[in-house]
């Protein structure tokens, strides 16, 4: 793979927090942002504002909640977590248009972009699966 091919593929598969905010402002109905993090609820209590919460472990049973006509943006914890990449691959295999939010929620919070505190009652196993 040539360097140009790599960077083109990377840009096609990812979106930065700043680029996502700009794109969402220009066309708010085009995108669905999904928090796919696994792990204990107490560490997932902060999420990106307006994100849908569908942990990777629940994805198959909740696929009907994800609209195929929109561009799906998925995120997980940080650059070291590959959960969003796993979810993106799965969704692409099922006919969705998907990008991964670069840097996950860590990058989003570092840039002081809007977050929401959530209170979830459902039990998710403590193993994050990253």
Automatic annotation (TrEMBL):
Pfam families: Rhodanese (PF00581). SUPFAM superfamilies: Rhodanese/Cell cycle control phosphatase (SSF52821). Gene3D superfamilies: Rhodanese-like domain. The lineage of its organism: Bacteria, Bacillati, Bacillota, Bacilli, Bacillales. This is Rhodanese-like domain-containing protein. Residues 27-117 form the Rhodanese domain. It comes from the Bacteria.
């Amino acid at each position: 793979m040539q360097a140009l091919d790599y960077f083109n593929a990377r840009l096609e598969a990812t979106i930065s927090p700043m680029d996502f905010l700009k794109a969402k402002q220009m066309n708010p109905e085009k995108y669905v942002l999904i928090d796919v993090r696994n792990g204990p609820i107490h560490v997932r209590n902060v999420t990106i504002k307006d994100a849908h919460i569908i942990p990777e472990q629940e994805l198959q049973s909740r696929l009907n909640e994800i609209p195929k006509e929109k561009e799906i943006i998925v995120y997980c914890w940080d650059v070291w977590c590959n959960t969003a990449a796993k979810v993106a691959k799965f969704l692409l295999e099922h006919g969705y248009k998907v990008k991964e939010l670069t840097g996950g929620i860590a990058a989003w919070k570092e840039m002081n972009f809007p977050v929401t505190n959530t209170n979830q009652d459902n039990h998710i196993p403590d193993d994050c699966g990253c």
